[in-house]
Every structure is written in C-alpha cells, then in structure tokens.
Amino acid sequence: MLGALLYLRLHSLRNKVVQRVLRLRQPKYLMGTAVAVAYFYFFLFRRNPAAGPSSALAAQAISGVGSVATAAICAVACAAALVRIAFAWIAPADKPGLRFSEAEIAFLFPAPITRRALIHFRLLSAQAAILFTSVLIAVFFNRSGYLGSHRAIHAVGWWIILSTFDLHMNGTNLTLSRLRETSPHFRMWRLGVVTAIVAYAAALFYSGIGRVSAYLSGPDSSQAAPEAFLRQLSESPAFHWLTLPFRIVLSPYFATGPGEFLAALAPALILLALHYHWVSSTEAHFEEGSIAMAEKRAAAREAALRGEMPKLGGSRPKARPGPFPLAAKGPPEIAFLWKNLLSMRSALFGRRALVILMMLMVWAAAAIGPLSRGGGRGGVVAPIVVVCSAMVAGYTVLLGPQIARQDLRGDLPNADILKTYPLEGWRLALGELLAPTAILTAILWCTIIACSAAVDADGAIEWLTPGIRVTVALSMASAAPFLCLIQLIVPNSIMVLLPGWYQASRSRTGGIEMFGQRLIFGVVQLFFALLVAVPAAGAAALVVFSSQWVFGIGPSVVLAALAVLAILSSEAVLGLWWLGRRFEKFDLSTESK
Amino acid sequence: MIEVEALAKRYGSFTAVRNLTFSVRPGEVLGLVGPNGAGKTTTLRCLSGIIPPTSGSVRVAGHDLSADPVSAKRALAFFPDEPRLFDYLTVRQHLAFVARIYGVADHESLATPLLQELELDGKADALPGELSRGMKQKLVIACGLLHSPSVMFFDEPLTGLDPLGIRRMKDSIVRRAQAGAAIVLSSHLLHLLEEVCTNVLILKKGEKVADGTLAGVSAQFSNGEAGVSLEEIFIRATGGSEG
Ligand SMILES: Nc1ncnc2c1ncn2[C@@H]1O[C@H](COP(=O)(O)OP(=O)(O)O)[C@@H](O)[C@H]1O
Ligand SMILES: [Mg+2]
User: Fold this and answer.
1) Is the ipTM of this complex over 0.95?
2) What are the pLDDT digits (tens) for A7-60?
3) Residue B154: helix, strand or coil by DSSP?
4) Which residue ranges make up each domain of chain B?
5) Atom 9 (ligand 1): residue with closest C-alpha?
6) Is CATH 3.40.640.10 the right assignment for the domain spanning B1-75+182-243?
7) How much is the pTM?
8) Pocket residues for ligand 1 (CB within 6 Å)?
9) Is the dihedral of CA A22, A25, A27, A30 positive or negative?
10) Residue A91's domain spans which residues?
C-alpha cells in the first residue's frame, strides 16, 4: 500500500523537478534563477571564505554576544512554537485535520486504504519537504562560522527540529479531532491543556527572568561573560528541567562536534519516536477536517495568484457596509476607491492581524522602554520617534506598494470586465490606484506629523520656528499622495507589462527562480523611487538654497514645495496615462497560456 | 446595431479569427456556433472591446469601437462564460458600483425590480462567495443590464446552469431581443440556437463557414435530404467535433 503512495510522491517530485528545469527556457524563469543564483553566490557563499581572517576575528569578537543572541533567538523560536501549539488548542479548526492536497483527497480518500496508511502517507509527504528544507537551510545559511561543527550536523539538526514540530502539530490536530468526536468534555479538555501550557510558560518565564534581568541590569552588562551567564542560567534547576524538551530537540543542531552530536542525537530521536507513536496510534477521523483544510488552502492559493494578500483575518470575507455612501453620480474613479477600500478593510483589520499588530506594539514598547529610561534625559524618546517614523515612512514608500495591492493587481481576474467599462484607460488606472494611495498617504501623514513634532524637540535649532515647522510638514504632506501614487504605478505597470512574470512571482509554489523574480521587482521599485525622488529633491534643494536669501526660509520652502508638486504630479500624470494605454491593450489570457 | 467588417485576430503567429464580416440588427439574436477552439470567445472579446482586433473594424450602436471606445462601451454589455465578480462586494454593492461607473442615476429604482426578476432579492446582502453559480450568473446579468444596453454579448450563457436556470436564461435573452436589443451569443449547444437565435454563424478554425437564418443554413448543408437533424448539419458544417 505504502508502495503506491511512495510511487505517487516520487513521481510527482520527479515531474515537478523536470517541469521546473524545462520552464527555465522561458526568460522570466531563467532571469529569475540567474539573479537568485548570483545573489546567493555573492552574498552568501563568497562572503565566508573571501572574508577570511577579518571574518574570523569578527566571529571571535561577536562570539560572546553571539551566544546570547543565539540563545535569544532560540527563546523566541521556542516561544513561537509554544504559542502556535497553544493556539491550536485555544482555537482549533472547526474540523481539525491533516494536510492533504485536493487531488490527494480525491484519489486517496475513497481508495481502499487504511487511516494509518493515510497518516503515514501524510508524514512521508511532509518528510520530503522537511528534508529539502533542512538541506537548503544548512547550505544557504552556513553558520559554521561561529556555531562551529559541520553543515551535515546542521542539516540533521534542522531535520530533527522540523520533523518534531511537524509531528507534534499533526498529533495535536489528530488528538483534537479525536477528542471532539469522542469526548463530551471537549471544552474542558481544551481548557485543561491550555491552562497547562500557560502554567508551563509562566513557570518557564519566572524560572529564568530573575537571572536575565540581573544580567541585563548588571553593573557592566556588556563585559560580563555571556557564556558564564548562560551556564548559570541553565544550571538553575527549575529552568534546567523546564527547558529540557526544547533543549532535547535543539541540542543536535548546536552540537559542536561529532561526539557531542551523537550524544545529543539519542534523546532527540527517542522524543521523535514518541511523537511518531503518538501520531500513528491516534485513532481519529481526520477526513472531513482535511477536506476543509485543502479547500481553504486551494482558495488561498488562488487568491495569491490573483495577487491578493494572504488573508490574515477570518478565512472568509464578510459583507460590510461601504466605507462611505456612494452616490450614483460623480466621477467614476471614486467608485473604484469605494470598492477597493471595501476589499481592503477585511484584509487589514482581520482578527489575527490585530493580534499580530498588538504583539508588535508590545514588542516595540518593550524595546523602546529601557532605552528611554536608560538615557536619563527625557529627550531620548524624541530622536527614537524621529528615527522610527522615518523608517516607517521609508518602508511605506518602498515596500508599501507591495503590501497594499488592492488595485489593478487585485482585480487581475476581472480584467475583462473592467475593460468593458466605458472609461478611458487612465481613468480606470487612476480609480484603481486611489485606494492604496489613500492608505499609504495616510501612513505617511502620520509619520510626517510624528516626525515634525519630535524633530529637535528641545528647540536647539534656531531657524526651526513653529511656522517653518508647520510649513515644511504641510509641504511634505502635500507631496506624499503623488509620491505614493507613482510608487504604486510601478508594480501595476510591471503587472500589466509582464503579467506572466507577475503571476509567477505571486505563486506560493515558487523556488529559487521566484526569489530572483521578487528580487528583480524590488530593485525595479527602488530604482523608480530614486528616479522619482532625485529630481524632485534636487529641485527642492535648488529652490530653497537659491531663494531663501531673497524671500526668507518660509516662502522659499513653499516655492520648493510647489516645484516638487509640479514635478511629481506631471510624473504621475505621465505614468497614469501610460499605464492606462497599456491596460487597454492588456490581454491576460495571452500570458497565462 | 453591430457591424463587423473583416475582423481578424492573431495571437502571435496563430490566427484565431480571420476575415469575419457580419451585422446584427436590433431585435436579432445571432448565434455563434463552432467546436471548441473555433474562435467564438475571441470574437466576442473583440466585439466588446476587451482585446483590440488585429485588423478589421467593429461598430457598436453606431460608434466605432477603436475610434470611440467609451461611447461604444456605454451601449454594450458583455457576459463572460465564467461569472466574474468582486469578492468583497455584496449583491447590492455590485449594483451600486456598476451604477456609478455607468452613471445610472436612479439605480435604486431599477435594481429592485431587476433583483426581483432574477430572484436575487433575498440575497441582496450576500457576498459572491455565498452564492451558487447560477446566482452568480444572475448577478452578472443584473450588473450588465443595469445601464439598459442596446447591444449584448453572451459567451456560453448556459454553462453550469440547471434546467430551470437554462429555461430562464433563454427566456430573458428572447425578451431583451424583443425589447429591441441586438444580441450575439456563442454556444455549442444546438437547442439554444433552435429556441433563441434568429440567425446563426458557424465558425470553424476562426473562419466563417456559413451564416444566415437557421432554416437557410440547414438547407445549405442538408444536401436536399429531408429531416436532417441539427446535430448532423452541425457536424457536416464543421467537419467533426474538434476544429
Ligand atoms: N490569449 C490567447 N493566446 C493564444 N491563443 C489563444 C488565446 N486565446 C485563445 N487562443 C486560441 O485561439 C483559438 C480560439 O479560442 P477561443 O476563441 O477561446 O475558442 P472558443 O471560444 O470557440 O472555444 C483556440 O485555438 C485558442 O487556443
Ligand atoms: Mg469559448
């Protein structure tokens, strides 16, 4: 029985590889692969050997900090795993199941195969991916430099980590569906397990936090030997025992030599075997849940192909009232703004997105808190605000267009319908781009407000009077929408020019060539950002420096803003006109063939 | 209403449609028939301004589609074979959106009877994801009819409909034609031709094999035999199932 399943696996894999290689004949895949290979070659492989002694020195210098950083990364990863497991118990899927593809379900579920065999098939499928990932990580992220040991050890270490986690999640899902079927106290069970997890996490936290904070607030924390601290920490008995399961799983990866590795391997394999036993002996009906999962993933993949963001919130879109009442008369562009804002809301304000946002904010607060306290002066916060908002603004301009994609890109499958609308191409393009432009502009405005309030908070710069502060802020705010619009025209143009490329780069099933394609798009976006910003900034600087002697700073800033607006708006008009023309000629069906 | 003159469409070196000339007057329903890949969808996409033809001209409601696309498109509606909808807009929001695009002022008063006619009034606040395929198709039709087009293009209008849905679709096409619309539909379902179309145009590998009234085309291919079935005529005209 497993033979047939193995056959399916192996042949699928072989055909996939063959297909991947064959499609390198298409320039989009070839270019993507070439760029990705070049990137890895220059940035990952070349760097280690070529850097030679200096790198070894650096490794030595950071090895102390490195071990703490590694420990911190491990702590975060383990916490994430714990959260993921807890989440499975807190909010189990309606029907927990195992991961099968739709085709596998269609062929295998009605076939005369036992559940156990299906489970084994599922585990084997996962193994293919896990093995591949382990080798890939070990090859690409060669950390032998400061972790010591060999790449092979890293690969096996990764394999153990990923396999154990995969088995654990499968066991959790199977146990959940088993409990749901058989136990009348399903909720109580879940409550019990979640309580146990929370208690465990709390115990872990309190057993370690004392030493950690003592270390951090120690007299001269930077010089205290990190290794000594880590040893101390692991010698605390409660911490030692509580972290044991995680350490068992992680220790093969961190083994510094073959002997240590073999010693660490035994307990890890035993733990893995126990997990395997758990998974393969749990009698649960996972079929329904698997079907639901597969459907969800197929839908998500389709959505990704269409260029939508993965839905962070609920799985299904919800009917919502429009963002504003849409009158029947008026410029049709507003209808697109209305429509795209509607589709954006469910993507942006989903429940899980909010949770992630809150976690990020807590993290940011935790990170900023000590800094502002440590400085002693209250004025430490203001520079942080300036730097952070500048960073947010930069990311918004450069990466925002990749994230806010409720525009032509989101409407790709409806391209035919859009083209039957009685609108000139540029009006359609403008309408479609309004919603993400509005969102990105709103973010930019927030950063401008924060920045203009926080810059030079203690008033050290003489000429920065409140009037000038407001004038500069308003000038920047008025340029922001045009900048966002232009930045959004770039990815939309890429999509209209090279829809095949674009769709390929959206698909999740990508390999190295997809990475290369994304890299190319990123570079193009950056290039256009510079192309747009440099003349505008140059003009602004020229105007300010040449006219401030005549008119004073305030009026010259206004003049500069007008110049920038003129440049940006004509660029935007040109871009929209061109995009509209291209879209009129655009035929999706030609490309997807 | 619809005048097509020497229409041709090439995809790269492959010619999907060549030298197609025909016209449809108000009240007429032209059926484009032909085997899979004959170029029906390509023709309809050219006629509705979705893709530019490689050569030839198309006039819709008196407007040249390439010279004045906006005016031409204002008069037409295209119904694709797959119902394409916006995932996040409810039925009512779809109508509001389309009304704004076409500038239909009194869309509230138009939409209500339209929804009732299409039996969508119970689903006015549902998203497309919650609609069955038949209902999605109805919504597409409601959106297309909102601006009272005088020219309509249906691509495989019966795909995926149940028998009752097919009956209703046929009725509503006939009704729109009687109200004076010029309609082109594509299908390889022959009973649709018999019941709905006033004229047929048989396509084979992108070329017109025959056109005229159904009786005329039948006579052309029956070789004088009596009682030749429509199916037989179709097979004779296209020379087999796959072009
Ligand atoms: N975008 C395209 N690029 C290349 N060939 C196409 C494209 N669209 C259609 N074709 C080809 O044109 C021919 C006609 O297609 P189509 O109009 O869809 O046929 P029908 O609708 O009659 O089944 C087919 O051979 C098809 O493969
Ligand atoms: Mg077709």
Assistant:
1) no
2) 877 887 788 788 778 877 777 778 878 888 887 777 666 555 444 444 444 445
3) strand
4) 1-75+182-243
5) B42
6) no
7) 0.72
8) A 587, 589-590, 593; B 11, 14, 16, 34, 36-42
9) positive
10) 73-216+224-298
